[in-house]
Amino acid sequence: MSTSTTHPCYRIGDVTELLGLSADTLRYYEKSGVLPRIARTASGIRQYDNSDISRLRFIQRAQKMNFSLAEIRDLLRMREDPQHARDEVRQLTAQKLKETQARLAELTTLGNELQLLLNLCRGSAAGCPIIERIDDKDA
Amino acid sequence: MSTSTTHPCYRIGDVTELLGLSADTLRYYEKSGVLPRIARTASGIRQYDNSDISRLRFIQRAQKMNFSLAEIRDLLRMREDPQHARDEVRQLTAQKLKETQARLAELTTLGNELQLLLNLCRGSAAGCPIIERIDDKDA
DNA sequence: ATACTACATGGAGCCAACTCCAGGTCAAAT
DNA sequence: ATTTGACCTGGAGTTGGCTCCATGTAGTAT
Q1: Helix, strand or coil for residue A48?
Q2: Is the pLDDT of residue B3 over 50?
Q3: A56: closest chain B residue by CA
Q4: What is the Cα–Cα distance from B53 to B57, expressed in whole angstroms?
Q5: In terms of CA atoms, which chain A residue is nearest residue B58?
Q6: Which residue of A has its CA nearest to B96?
Q7: Model-level pTM?
Q8: What is the DSSP letter of A39?
Q9: Is any Cβ of chain A less than 8 angstroms from the Cβ of B135?
Q10: Residue A99, H or E segment
Q11: A48, B34, B108, B116: which has the highest count of C-beta atoms within 10 A?
Q12: Which of A129, A21, A31, A33 has the alpha carbon at shortest distance from A72?
């Protein structure tokens, strides 16, 4: 028994409107194996159904979380069998968190350093204190 | 009158040891115009002098501050005439700070989100709460 | 004399995630 | 009948910052 909900089909142009992804990007996702092959009409036109749209939304959200397309491809596979994949998903997420925190720490340091450079600019008459500072940070 | 300090010349291999940059990278900096043309011996071998080394250290530090090579090329030019370039340098630095802070905000949000996902993992029996969360964040 | 090493050059390849292009098909509108 | 528009395909190009390669030469060590 199939679900009784109608299952609308979107053409690639509909999807670009709906999700804000370019047609090229949509084809690229398929070509690069992030998405499985999309169904076609007899004349070869892609027909995205609701589950494809759902996968695409998943991709968009996972990308915002800094997952790479390769990682997302894996996540999508895990999504097919969530029960079984729990540990793997958690591990991938934990690793992403770790990367995020590391990058966060770096950027915090960097932000402080840049702020300091700008502060040097007030109250320096000659030369360019920023350049001097980049110059002889070792000195 | 030239400065009375001796001006040692380093071959490319010396520089790789000294700074930890590969010979290819050093040649690339020159090729791509980040560095001006390095002096050569009669037989064509690069001779890096102290000012080249200084420029290279500058590049390394500026890179750590997330300046692109294109920006660094500009900064190096400004370094030649710091007096005149002050405003431009400050502006570039301010912009870099702004970018840094924006990215920092994004990453902070992301870090919180990932942490939340991981927390969901404790205390959920069935399915994969992370995948479900990426799925229906809109719902 | 010859092997070895460090260097030189121009140019290709790599990564990610697109983006663009030429040339072809198909369906609807005029 | 033909033109328009949306779509298809395979493949090339883009960006940034390298990295690798083939081939050639200069100078030194044995």
Answers
A1: strand
A2: no
A3: B135
A4: 6
A5: A135
A6: A114
A7: 0.84
A8: P
A9: yes
A10: helix A82-121
A11: A48
A12: A33
- Which residues between 22 and 81 in chain B have a beta carbon less than 8 angstroms from any beta carbon of chain A? 54, 57-58, 61-62, 64-66, 75, 78-79
H/E segment holding residue A75: helix A69-80
Query: What residues of B are in contact with residue A114 (Cβ under 8 Å)?
Result: 65, 93, 96-97, 100
Residue of A52, A93, A121, A136 to mutate, interface with B, max B Cβ within 10 Å: A93
Give the C-alpha separation, B62 to A134, whole Å: 7
What is the spatial distance between Cα B78 and Cα B85, in angstroms, rounded to a whole number?
A: 5
Token pair 């790479």 is found at: A68
Q: How far apart are CA A111 and CA A119, in angstroms?
A: 12
What's the rounded Cα separation, in Å, for the pair A101 and B109? Answer: 11
Write out chain A's pLDDT in tens, 139 residues.
Answer: 544 456 789 999 999 999 999 999 999 999 999 999 999 999 999 999 999 999 999 999 999 999 999 999 999 999 988 788 888 999 999 999 999 999 999 999 999 988 988 888 777 777 788 888 888 775 5
B93 beta carbon to strand D: under 7 Å: no
Judge if the beta carbon of B64 is closer than 7 A to nucleic acid strand D.
Answer: no
Bridge-based pairing of strands B46-47 and B39-40 is: antiparallel
Q: What residues contact A82, with CB distance under 8 A and at least 6 apart?
A: A89, B127, B128, B131, B132
Asked whether the beta carbons of residue B107 and residue A110 sit closer than 8 angstroms, the reply is no
Residue with the two structure tokens 């291999």: B13
